[in-house]
């Protein structure tokens, strides 16, 4: 039973390591494709741990050291994953804000156009859409 916990924990550690590598390289597309594997590995570890707990299984002897090292590794990888995800989200937010601000019309900025006349802003007319499903 503890073998299942160790195997599931090892799979989760590998998924976290791979996602962290992609996030560190700012390969957000590759990191996004790894999210499913990470979630599945996390669920598998939770299920294996719950089954071991229900059956009263505990790590003893060599397994105890292995599970302790695995728990420490998962803690470290999880913390790094959180930091890298927060960094990626902040970076994406800045990119979106930059694009959005560039797309906004400069209606508030007064200015003059050709021949010294006040600049005419060309804005699309308002549009309303109504649909029934």
Structural topology:
Elements lengths: L1 H23 L3 H6 L1 H20 L7 H42 L30
Helix pairs in contact: 1-3, 1-4
What does this structure look like?
By secondary structure, the protein is mainly α. Helices cover about 70% and strands about 0% of the residues. Helix 1 (about 1-25) runs antiparallel to helix 3. The model has no long low-confidence stretch (mean pLDDT about 85).
What's the overall geometry? Answer: elongated
Give the helix proportion (percent range).
55-70%
Rounded to the nearest angstrom, the radius of gyration is: 26 Å
Structural class: mainly alpha
Number of helices, counting only DSSP H or I runs of 4 residues or more: 4
Strand content: under 5%
* Major beta-sheet overview: none
Give the distance, in angstroms, between the N- and C-terminal Cα atoms: 53 Å
The average pLDDT value, as a whole number, equals 86
Runs in which pLDDT lies below 50 for 5 or more consecutive residues are none
Number of strand segments: 0
Order of helices and strands: HHHH
List keywords for this structure.
133 residues, mainly alpha, 68% helix
Overview in brief:
This protein is mostly helical. The chain contains four helices and no strands. Helix content is 68%, strand content 0%.
